[in-house]
Amino acid sequence: MPRESAYLDGLRLLGRRELSVAGLRARLIDREHPPDDVDAAIAHLVETGALDDARVARAHARTATKVKGRGRLRVARELQMMGIAKEVAAEALGEVFGDLDERAMIARALQKKLRGRPRIASPAEHARLYQFLMRQGFSPAGIVAALRTLGGRADSIE
């Protein structure tokens, strides 16, 4: 029985999940398709519109912000790790984050993390929350401003 072509394998992979060009290339190489076949398959998939890094970047950014509550910096890192070109990623980030309010996103993340408590209990909790929000990809200035409104700052210890 002949081996499945890289093109058909690529279509099947894309049918399950949106992938970037780099992600699809890696998966096809892992499935031991010859590099020339992989290049030809990717070129055809891009040409037909089945494979589009800009679409993947926008979809990932929308999901990361609306469902997972992640900030711009983390989403940018994730897109870079997916192999999305910087220009394409910047355009997708601008489109998705253009009308989002980072302060509101930070407030939602803090509200969820604090489980309804109105204030931060200790400097240690303040540090944990700061690190959590940094890992989520929010700007340091936005984090400090949000934490300052909740109290419990590390520099308020006597």
Describe this structure in words.
There is one protein chain. The chain is mainly alpha-helical. The chain has three domains: 43 residues, Orthogonal Bundle (Arc Repressor Mutant, subunit A), CATH 1.10.10; 45 residues; 55 residues. Helix content is 68%, strand content 0%. It contains nine helices and no strands. It is elongated and about 60 Å long. The chain starts with 5 loop residues before the first helix and ends in an 8-residue tail after the last helix. The C terminus is likely disordered.
Tally of DSSP helical segments: 9
Which sheet architecture does the biggest sheet show? none
The best one-word shape is elongated
- What portion of the residues fall into strands of 2 or more residues? under 5%
Level of helix content?
A: 55-70%
The parts where pLDDT drops under 50 for at least 5 residues are: 154-158
**Order of helices and strands, N to C?**
HHHHHHHHH
Keywords:
158 residues, Arc Repressor Mutant, subunit A, 3 domains, elongated
Topology:
Layout: H1 6-16, H2 21-30, H3 35-48, H4 53-66, H5 72-81, H6 86-97, H7 102-114, H8 123-135, H9 140-150
Helix pairs in contact: 1-3, 2-3, 4-5, 4-6, 5-6, 8-9
Short description:
The protein is mostly helical.
